[in-house]
Write a structure and sequence with these properties.
The complex is a heterodimer of chains A (445) and B (614). Chain A is of the alpha+beta class and 445 residues long. Helices cover 16% and strands 36% of the residues of chain A. With 614 residues, chain B is of the alpha+beta class. Chain B is 29% helix and 26% strand. Classes of the chains: A alpha+beta (445), B alpha+beta (614). Chain B: Pfam families: BING4CT, WD40.
């Protein structure tokens, strides 16, 4: 007779001393783990609920401006530095980790219209309503020294937008025309016009660095190549675009914030129709900025909310609002992809988390692992009705909630009417126009 | 196949190339230059030929690809090539890895961790969906491989009992086994002589550490049976029908003469649940925290033990329910009835999910295998039957002269059946026709409770004369998962496990015949969804509003006018459909005509070959 009976030595399964961690032998045999799917579903449901519980995106409010914040600029080299310009011509430099203002300077008379930090991070440019471009040192002047700009260029007309080249000492401004300036010269090296009287913003492509795009007041978006003397092409839309932002990872895509409450993502090679129409705002969209990963962007709107959109989704994944925040004029996504900064009408700059439920600070390895696991579970079960309902739920201010409803009713009515017209007219006389095509008037080359 | 071939070949050439370079251009010195051999020439030629054959197959070969060569021929050649390389290497830089690449994983082990088949790709898939599916499949394959590799590291191996030549294992006595094995294992065979309050029902806790026995005449005791430490012992002064551990060893339920009671491990009565009366049998669903009870009044009731609420009470209308078991894979309750049927129940449905006629007499006992594949039943007709409960088909039928009163299945698929006072253990009842038992043991008195201890080679038998713990080598799962059920857990670990388990308690609504149903795509049709919506809302949101003509003045709202106006919009949708159908008909007709015309045209043209026509 040969016999063997299971006999476990407790020494192999129990820790030796109290100072050890407990032994946890695993066996991944699926038959020992029944109800896999149901248990994972329950975990996902719990994770989704906890996410909503911990969703506290608002971090800090930076106050000190004496008028509405009109523009923001990220420092190109330092994560903790932020520059802001207000409607009374004041520029403030903020230390975000200490959440305090480190420097204030009266840059312009009237609005500070635009601001950009040079790629090296040693100086920054501002433009204002007083028709001047000023270059400032990033360093605070020493004791007893005057706040003096390094250079001042007096332009002929008011400037409305400003952006700097990624690698060279060249920057672009816009106003009545788009000008390309060399930092060493006091007159533009090139000026672009295309039958338009004014532009609202200009932006350099971060990858193909000689390309730039601008939004004009004749409802068009114009693309330029800095090396050529004439603009490349433009697309005319039904309403005016306020700003545009290039996708930093796939730099042939850009997103523009439009007056018709929508954002449009275009492929610069095919301007005939946008790739995605991003809807959800209930008032004009004023500013947009991409996350450095290029997967998401954030938009600021006149309806007093900030929304975060995935780059290829038609609707936002997140909406931020507070009782006190008024029309949001400018928005930036921080370079570490973790924070969002918004400047609004009521003179405050607000610091938000990009992921509302994310835990800040250093995570222990197990904590990090658990977070990753629950994230994966949430993704896996995101389309189950109960989980989706919880994950999607957001509280909105009453006015926005009602306005959304109203807009939906209006849209339905319009669609119904169009359907009726189509029904009662000659077949083919009223063609079906998709939402994407609806907003593009024409493309000019 | 062919592409793998290519990769494989490029792989070998790549492996060979550095050796050759060191052979031809040695950095040490000219005198160390090895004389060229005839086979080097040959190999070079071979490699060149291979390169030509490989073409553009210059993708980076992975070790995975190297390890997956299926046909024996290929394997042989690969081995040969590898040996060649090794020889090459040996003569230049000494020892090399004799087993390059990752270790092979046996196919059966991979199969063990396989969750489901690969999705068949439809021809036109959106590119986003395609990449998503590809990625998830890659991840699951990786997980499968990792788990299969980890299997190698499991510390314990299952027990076994083999007779010498001509020796029958069923004749080996328990004493012999207990003497042959080590002392701790030998101590697992013991007998508790409790002749006063018998017969006994028994239950082991989920970790297998704790034993609960309940005598018919009111004696209840819980024991840490390995250390033989008595946790509590009470007499409830009432007849006891059944006992069951709840989720942990701190609480257990006792079905007494009238009501259901819950006691803690010190024997203190925690609850008397008056909603549950005349309970005969109980089952605890550990992942749902549900206690299912079957009563003599033919009620099947579910108690949620985490919140203490009755989930549902189902009147089965089938008489006294004293045969019950659960399917551990999908938490479905199986009930056996006096008319020979077995019914399957979930808390979500007032009727039985399945009714199957299993025996000609009454059903005496039931057991379901751990994987939920097989069900074993025994009846008054003295038969023991094995069913495949995925297909609800009988597989095997055995005749037991005395009939089995109690059945129990172990984690590794051993079946124990009690016939009178003899406990028999069978092996592989579903795969091969069994003629004689694997083991047998006679106890002192009729068996009333039978239970395999989880994670141990032990079978507990409760009978008229007390309790007997039998050694059954090969019964228990050798390797436990400590996050699920850890026999060696400390109090702190148990507390943590309890919190985790409660957090991921599965809702009773999720119990269904197919436990993976939640992971399937819901292909409800529009009509079904609409029906649900109507049910939820209480009205039909898409229903057409009845057309009421506007009131008009100057006699234009006379009955005749109104009727006329109504007629204008009557059956509008139907008219649309008819119009469309007519249009389609017209088009097909036109096409047909066109085709005919063409045909006649073709026919009218004379061909040069027409002259050969007869």
């Amino acid at each position: 007779m040969k016999v063997k009976v299971l006999s476990r030595n407790p020494d192999d399964y129990v820790r030796e001393t109290k100072l050890d961690i407990q032994r946890v032998p695993r066996n991944y045999d699926p038959t020992l783990h029944p109800f896999e799917v149901a248990r994972e579903y329950t975990r996902a449901l719990n994770a989704t609920k906890l996410e909503r519980v911990f969703a506290k995106p608002f971090l800090a409010s930076l106050d000190g401006h004496r008028d509405g914040v009109n523009c923001l600029a990220k420092h190109t080299r330092s994560l903790s530095t932020l520059l802001s310009g207000s409607c009374d011509g004041e520029v403030k430099v903020w230390n975000l980790s200490k959440r305090e203002c480190v420097r204030t300077l009266q840059a312009h008379e009237g609005f500070v219209r635009g601001m950009v930090v040079r790629f090296c991070g040693t100086s920054f440019f501002t433009i204002g309503d007083d028709k001047t471009i000023k270059q400032w040192k990033m360093e605070t002047p020493g004791y007893g020294e005057e706040e003096e700009p390094l250079h001042t260029i007096l332009g002929k007309t008011v400037f409305t937008g400003l952006d700097h080249h990624q690698k060279e000492g060249v920057f672009a401004t816009c106003g009545q025309q788009v000008d390309i300036w060399d930092e060493q010269r006091s007159s533009p090296i090139r000026s672009f016009t295309w039958g338009v009287d004014s532009f609202s913003s200009v932006s350099f492509n971060p990858v193909e660095t000689d390309l730039l795009g601008s939004c004009a007041s004749d409802r068009s978006i114009v693309l330029y190549d800095m090396r050529e003397s004439a603009p490349l092409k433009k697309v005319i839309m039904t309403m005016r675009s306020n700003t545009l932002c290039w996708n930093p990872m796939e730099a042939y895509y850009f997103t523009c914030a439009n007056e018709d409450y929508n954002l449009y993502t275009y492929d610069m090679r095919y301007l005939e129709k946008p790739l995605v129409v991003h809807m959800d705002h209930v008032s004009a969209v004023l500013d947009v900025d991409y996350s450095p990963t290029g997967q998401e962007f954030v938009s600021a709107s006149f309806d007093k909310t900030i929304r975060i959109f995935p780059k290829d989704a038609g609707h936002s994944r997140e909406v931020y609002h507070t009782k006190r925040m008024q029309h949001v004029i400018c928005i930036k996504w921080s370079a570490d992809s973790k924070y969002i900064l918004s400047g609004s009408d009521e003179m405050n700059i607000r610091l938000w988390k990009a992921n509302a439920a994310e835990k800040l600070g250093v995570l222990a390895p197990r904590e990090r692992e658990a977070a990753n696991y629950s994230q994966k579970l949430k993704e896996k079960f995101q389309n189950h009705p109960q989980i989706r309902r919880i994950a999607r739920h957001r509280h909105l201010p009453k006015s926005i909630y009602h306005q959304t409803k109203e807009l939906r009713v209006m849209k339905d009515a319009r669609r119904r009417k169009e359907m009726n017209v189509r029904k009662h007219s000659k077949p083919g006389a009223v063609p079906v126009v998709s939402e994407k095509e609806k907003h593009v008037v024409t493309v000019v080359k | 196949m062919s592409s793998r071939h290519k990769h494989h070949q490029t792989y070998t050439t790549k492996m060979a190339s550095p050796d050759e370079s060191t052979v031809s251009v040695s950095h040490v010195g000219k005198k160390k230059k090895a004389p060229s051999r005839y086979w080097q020439e040959l190999q070079k030629e071979k490699d060149e030929a291979k390169d030509a054959g490989a073409g553009e197959g210059n993708k980076e070969p992975t070790t995975e690809e190297a390890e997956e060569s299926n046909t024996p021929k290929q394997k042989k050649r690969k081995f040969k090539e590898k040996r060649d390389q090794n020889q090459d290497k040996k003569c230049i830089s000494g020892k090399s890895d004799p087993f390059p690449g990752k270790a092979r994983i046996p196919e059966d082990r991979l199969q063990k961790f396989k969750r489901k088949e690969k999705i068949k790709k439809p021809p036109h898939q959106h590119y986003k969906l395609r990449t998503m599916i590809a990625r998830s499949e890659e991840a699951s394959e990786m997980a499968q491989k990792q788990a299969a590799r980890f299997d190698l590291l499991l510390p314990e191996e299952a027990g076994f009992l083999e007779g010498d030549e001509g020796e029958d294992t069923c004749l080996v006595s328990q004493e012999d086994i207990a003497n042959a094995v080590d002392i701790t294992s030998g101590a697992k065979h013991f007998h508790l002589k409790l002749s006063q309050f018998g017969p006994y029902r028994i239950d082991y806790s989920k970790t297998g550490r704790h034993l609960l026995i309940g005598g018919r005449k009111g004696h209840v005791a819980c024991i840490d049976w390995q250390s033989k430490h008595l946790m509590c012992e009470i007499n409830v002064m009432e007849s006891v029908n059944d006992i069951k551990w709840l989720h942990s060893e701190s609480m257990y339920a006792v079905a007494q003469k009238k009501w259901l009671y819950v006691y803690d491990s010190n024997g203190i009565e925690l609850h008397c649940i008056r909603k549950f009366n005349d309970v005969l049998r109980m089952q605890f669903l550990p992942y749902h925290f549900l206690l299912a009870t079957a009563s003599s009044t033919s009620f099947l009731q579910y108690l949620d033990v985490s919140v203490g609420k009755e989930v549902v009470a189902i009147n089965t209308k089938t008489g006294r329910l004293d045969v019950m078991c659960q399917n551990p894979q999908n938490a479905i309750i199986h009930l056996g009835h006096p008319n020979g049927t077995v019914t399957l129940w979930s808390p979500n449905q007032k009727e039985a999910l399945v009714k199957m006629l299993c025996h000609q007499g009454a059903v005496r006992s039931l057991a379901v295998e751990k994987n939920g594949t097989y069900m074993v039943t025994s009846g008054m007709d003295k038969k023991l039957k094995v069913y495949d409960i995925r297909a609800f088909k009988p597989l095997k039928s055995y005749f037991l002269p005395a009939g089995a009163s109690c059945l129990s299945l172990s984690q590794r698929g051993l079946l124990s059946a009690a016939t009178g006072d003899i406990v028999q253990v069978y092996r592989d009842v579903w795969s091969t026709p069994v003629t004689k038992p694997y083991m047998a043991h006679r106890v002192r008195g009729t068996v009333w409770g039978l239970h395999f201890c989880p994670f141990e080679d032990v079978l507990g038998v409760g009978h008229q004369d007390g309790f007997t713990s039998m050694l059954v080598p090969g019964a228990g799962e050798p390797n436990f998962d400590a996050l699920d059920a850890n026999p060696f857990r400390s109090a702190k670990q148990r507390q943590e496990w309890e919190v985790k388990a409660l957090l991921e308690k599965i809702q009773p609504e999720l119990i269904s015949l197919d436990p993976t149903e939640l992971g399937h795509v819901d292909r409800a049709t529009f009509e079904q969804k609409h029906e649900d919506r109507v049910k939820a809302l209480g009205f039909d949101p898409l229903a057409k509003v009845k057309f009421i003509p506007k009131f008009k003045k100057k006699g234009r709202s006379s009955a005749g006018h109104v009727e006329k106006r109504k007629k204008q919009v009557a059956h509008e949708d139907q008219r649309d459909i008819i119009r469309k159908a007519m249009e389609d008909k017209r088009k097909t007709e036109e096409e047909r005509k066109n085709k005919e015309q063409k045909k006649t045209l073709m026919l009218s043209q004379k061909s040069a070959l027409d002259r050969f026509k007869k």
